[in-house]
């Protein structure tokens, strides 16, 4: 095991503004760069969702704010254009899934926590780490630019299935906007791969003395496995995107065959759009766990710390992370049950998909048992983590229905699916990301966030989030398809007009509530009270570093680890926590053995 | 309703403002540097809020259920759909129980074990027994769900019965065409190279072949004329050459269809094409065949619990037996205007939300009477044989777009 002598902190780096804040190679700064970039993207994605919720709540009505954001071309007289509606849902999905919950979430917390919690001076390669951020930023900028092209941004749904996305004749959004989408995603994949490789290498090689794999905090396990999943699956998306670029630009026919569009006969034959779907979902499903596993890792840390109790079933938690990661690669076909796939294959995917429910159930039960007989302190991070466990369960159980190929026939692409994945993936990951920010803010900025604002932020967000997505189960069960500009063309959906209004109100109130967080975040960054070294009474190594972050993380030598990360409320100890750096007493067993 | 919603919004907004005010009061205090962990009263308050939330959450669920469960899809109008609904209800029963139990534990524990400085958490790291319990119990339930679900799945995706009616549903941006196989129970061959204004599905019959060939030759001739007049080496010439090449290759492909055997060229003549609404008979198995002209669409018929993607370049199919006529369903739903609908359920462009067809389920006699009254494909193609009339017309046919739009 390496002891991490990458840097000698005694010699002082002369840092200029540029090398410290912009082209930084320090993992803590890169983490903050990812966080802020992710937050900016999230605000864009959130505003988009509010805009299309206006249309869905009050279809065809005029809103000056639509005109304000979208201009006369896309919202003439304040009425949303159907093409722009599709563009909004597409870019909202892309931003939230990739830029916030992949780049933003993993980028922030893998960078912050991996070196700090394993006792390393920095990432294995600071330079690659910096590149990873800069590719992410470039990709974000290209994506934002695509919003301003004349024919509008990509609008074939965030999955951008060809032929729709391949043919500019099929919709305006498949023109320049789609090209930029593909360029942006290609850059994003590069960023993700560079980051992921670095995380994997760092966790394997740079753990400090005594930090065995079975002493790693669950957050690191989750981020480590996430990085592995990403490294294995993102290249497949890259190939899918590349072939799509070929089809669009060079007249190849990987995905195109027998098409007559807009009065024009295309000459491509022999391709199959289904090939794209396979390639896309080969990333797309692991992607769900790329989003979810870091969220579960953060939740594990926050719950154990604030329940003042060891996480229940540490090894089972690791086992379930590994099981979920493995299974995530063999379930992608459940997104394609109604593409006419071989029924036998459908049956196999149903089986593998339902298997995932087992490790997921283990995780949920273990969280609940961790709370049992705990001594729970409700920091804002703890509230968000408990909220995350709730959404993980609420959204997870409906997955059992959608995994069932027979039941999926009638629910595929309805609002039931929208409700399911927003709750289990979107909300869970967003809530956990908030938990992570509230919990580790003192490590990021050396100051504390305001607790009362945190409480207000949590409750409004949590109530509104369920207010938005829970009713959508019912709308989906009524057969309302997703991505409909309006449901008013079908009298059978008229019963849900008022429910859609309610959802839109929750969505908009919830969106506005995020400004409480933004205010708290930026206010606390500069004016918050100075943090103490270990404000939450936590065991993990990051709380042994100085309050003011320094390059190389620890002054002097690296800490040595003597125990697992979860000795909270251990009998016979004076305090209700025992940091990992405290040596075992004579006869004391590690890792909760014997209890 | 809108007023209530606005009231809710105002209440929530004022709650937010109120919380904000409290915060600004307390920031001043915090600057003094008191404890970073929540105070006892905060912990107690948040613990109680957990219970309040749980009750509110369940109440919301109950309200939605009471109000909206009766407004969901009516009883299934297809044979297999009844079984699917039972399967769905069985699944819902299980997941609702799991959902309620886990949430009660989650929020109750959060409330019950709120922090107290004179107490310590129970150091409980793992229990093989418990973990085994909650690995095996879900596994058993899931096994039941898998077996039950796959039975239904294999049943639905089984091959259609021999005597099924064959109907093709053919989508394009942004409408559907239904094609019936006619008296011979066989759909005529079709190919996208044959698509024209009068032949939207590209059905191949002798009449449509000669029409298409005629149109293409006409266009090629006029392209060649234009080419001679076009300045050499210019952009115009390049464009014309490209179009000419395309048309010539299309003509080659179209000509090759003449090699198809007579039977498959004959089969299309009695096909019937309809738009905006189509009929299916009650009690007969219907096998739907899907292709697509441009992008992926999805044929979604929620009342029959049926859906299948329509993918360009390949054919897909699904079959079901309708069990309730439109008239019967109107009685069941107590709605005189009830119609079965075919929706598009795969994002396909700007008018995706309005791409629909009415499905009429009728008694078999009525169905056959209706089908008999429709024009066959041969009827539609008839004018094409009157070459003299067409000769003047085909001058403008060169541009296919104008014909289709």
Notes on the protein architecture:
The complex is a heterodimer of chains A (595) and B (405). A two-stranded antiparallel sheet of chain A has the order 1-2. In chain A, β1 (260-261) and β2 (264-265) form a beta hairpin. Chain A has 15 helices and two strands. Helix content of chain A is 61%, strand content 1%. Chain A starts with 16 loop residues before the first helix and ends in a 68-residue tail after the last helix. Chain A is mainly alpha-helical. Chain B is of the alpha+beta class and 405 residues long. Helices cover 53% and strands 14% of the residues of chain B. Chain B has twelve helices and ten strands. Chain B has helices spanning 2-31, 40-68, 79-112, 128-156, 206-229, 235-256, 262-266, 326-333, 364-372, 377-385, 387-397, 400-404, and strands spanning 165-172, 175-180, 272-275, 277-281, 286-290, 297-301, 306-310, 316-320, 340-344, 356-362. In chain B, the strands form two sheets. In chain B, strands 3-2-1-5-8 form a five-stranded mixed sheet, with no helix packed on it. In chain B, strands 4-10-9-6-7 form a five-stranded mixed sheet. In chain B, β6 (297-301) and β7 (306-310) form a beta hairpin. The radius of gyration of chain B is 32 Å and the shape is elongated. Mean pLDDT of chain B is 88; it is low at 387-405. The chains are: A mainly alpha (595), B alpha+beta (405). The interface between A and B is large, with 144 and 137 residues.
């Amino acid at each position: 095991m390496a002891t991490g002598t990458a840097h000698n902190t005694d010699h002082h780096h002369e840092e200029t503004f540029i090398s410290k804040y912009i082209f930084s190679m320090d993992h803590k700064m890169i983490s903050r760069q990812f966080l802020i970039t992710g937050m900016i993207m999230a605000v864009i994605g959130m505003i988009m969702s509010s805009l299309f919720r206006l249309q869905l709540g009050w279809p065809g009505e005029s809103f000056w704010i639509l005109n304000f954001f979208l201009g006369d071309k896309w919202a003439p007289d304040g009425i949303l254009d159907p093409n722009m509606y599709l563009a909004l849902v597409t870019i909202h999905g892309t931003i939230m899934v990739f830029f916030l919950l992949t780049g933003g979430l993993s980028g922030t917390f893998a960078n912050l926590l991996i070196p700090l919690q394993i006792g390393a001076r920095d990432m294995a390669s600071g330079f690659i780490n910096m590149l990873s951020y800069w590719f992410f930023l470039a990709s974000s900028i290209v994506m934002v630019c695509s919003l301003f092209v004349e024919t509008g941004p990509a609008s074939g749904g965030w999955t951008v299935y060809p032929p729709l996305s391949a043919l500019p004749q099929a919709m305006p959004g498949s023109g320049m906007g789609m090209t930029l989408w593909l360029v942006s995603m290609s850059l994003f994949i590069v960023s993700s791969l560079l980051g992921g490789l670095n995380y994997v290498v760092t966790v394997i090689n740079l753990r400090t003395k005594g930090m065995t794999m079975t002493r790693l905090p669950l957050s690191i396990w989750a981020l480590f496995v996430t990085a592995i999943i990403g490294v294995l699956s993102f290249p497949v998306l890259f190939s899918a995107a590349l072939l799509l670029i070929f089809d669009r630009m060079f007249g190849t026919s990987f995905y195109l065959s027998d098409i007559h569009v807009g009065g024009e006969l295309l000459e491509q034959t022999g391709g199959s759009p289904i090939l794209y779907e396979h390639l896309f979902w080969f990333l797309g499903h692991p992607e769900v766990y790329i989003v979810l596993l870091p969220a579960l890792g953060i939740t594990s840390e926050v719950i154990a710390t604030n329940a003042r109790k060891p996480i229940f079933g540490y090894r089972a938690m690791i086992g379930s992370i590994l099981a979920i990661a493995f299974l995530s690669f063999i379930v992608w076909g459940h997104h394609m049950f109604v593409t006419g796939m071989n029924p036998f294959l459908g049956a196999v995917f149903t089986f593998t998909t339902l298997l995932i429910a087992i490790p997921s159930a283990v995780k949920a039960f273990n969280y609940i048992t961790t709370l049992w007989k705990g001594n729970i302190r409700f920091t804002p991070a703890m509230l968000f983590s408990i909220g995350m466990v709730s959404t993980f369960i609420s959204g997870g159980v409906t997955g059992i229905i959608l995994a069932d190929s027979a039941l999926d026939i009638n629910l595929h692409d309805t609002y039931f699916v929208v409700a399911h994945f927003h709750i289990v993936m979107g909300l869970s990951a967003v809530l956990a990301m908030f938990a992570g920010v509230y919990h580790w803010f003192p490590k990021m900025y050396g100051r504390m966030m305001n607790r009362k604002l945190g409480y207000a932020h949590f409750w409004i967000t949590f109530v509104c989030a369920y207010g938005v997505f829970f009713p959508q189960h019912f709308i989906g069960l009524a057969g309302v398809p997703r991505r409909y500009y309006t449901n008013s063309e079908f009298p059978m959906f008229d019963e849900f007009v008022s429910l859609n209004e309610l959802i839109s109100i929750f969505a908009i109130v919830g969106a506005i509530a995020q400004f409480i967080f933004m205010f708290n975040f930026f206010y606390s960054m500069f004016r918050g009270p100075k943090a103490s070294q270990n404000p939450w009474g936590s065991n993990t190594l990051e709380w042994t570093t100085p309050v003011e972050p320094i390059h190389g993380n620890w002054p002097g030598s690296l800490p040595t680890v003597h125990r697992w990360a979860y000795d909270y409320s251990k009998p016979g100890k004076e305090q209700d926590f025992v940091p990992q750096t405290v040596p075992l007493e004579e006869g004391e067993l590690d890792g909760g053995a014997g209890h | 309703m809108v007023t209530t919603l606005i009231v809710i919004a105002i209440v929530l907004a004022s709650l937010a403002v109120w919380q904000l005010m409290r915060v600004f009061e307390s920031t001043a205090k915090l600057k003094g540097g008191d404890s970073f962990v929540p105070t006892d009263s905060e912990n107690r308050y948040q613990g109680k809020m957990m219970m309040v939330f749980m009750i509110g959450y369940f109440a919301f669920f109950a309200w939605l259920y009471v109000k909206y469960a009766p407004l969901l899809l009516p009883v299934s109008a297809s044979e297999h759909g009844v079984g699917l609904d039972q399967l769905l209800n069985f699944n819902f029963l299980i997941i609702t129980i799991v959902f309620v139990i886990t949430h009660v534990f989650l929020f109750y524990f959060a409330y019950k074990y709120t922090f107290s400085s004179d107490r310590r958490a129970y150091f409980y790291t793992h229990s093989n027994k418990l973990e085994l319990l909650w690995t095996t119990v879900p596994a058993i339930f899931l096994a039941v769900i898998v077996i039950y679900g796959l039975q239904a799945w294999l049943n639905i995706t089984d091959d259609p019965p021999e005597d099924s009616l064959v109907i093709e549903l053919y989508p394009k941006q942004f409408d559907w065409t239904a094609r019936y196989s006619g008296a011979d129970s066989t759909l005529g061959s079709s190919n996208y190279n044959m698509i024209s204004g009068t032949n939207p599905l590209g059905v191949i019959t002798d009449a449509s072949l000669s029409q298409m060939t005629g149109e293409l030759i006409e266009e090629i001739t006029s392209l060649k004329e234009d080419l001679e007049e076009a300045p050499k080496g210019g952009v115009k010439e390049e464009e014309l050459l490209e179009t000419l090449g395309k048309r010539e290759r299309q003509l080659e492909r179209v000509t090759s269809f003449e090699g198809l055997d007579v039977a498959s060229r004959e089969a299309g003549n009695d096909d019937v094409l309809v738009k905006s609404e189509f009929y299916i008979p009650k009690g007969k198995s219907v096998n739907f065949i899907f292709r697509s002209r441009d992008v992926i669409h999805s044929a979604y018929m929620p009342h029959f619990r049926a859906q299948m993607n329509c993918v360009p370049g390949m054919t897909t199919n699904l079959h079901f037996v309708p069990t309730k006529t439109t008239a019967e369903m109107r009685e069941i739903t107590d709605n005189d205007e009830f119609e079965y609908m075919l929706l598009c359920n795969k994002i396909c462009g700007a008018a995706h939300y309005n791409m629909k067809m009415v499905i009429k389920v009728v008694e078999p006699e009525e169905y056959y009477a209706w089908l008999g009254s429709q024009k066959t494909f041969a009827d539609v193609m008839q004018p094409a044989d009157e070459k003299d009339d067409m000769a003047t017309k085909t001058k403008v046919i060169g541009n296919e777009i104008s014909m289709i739009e």
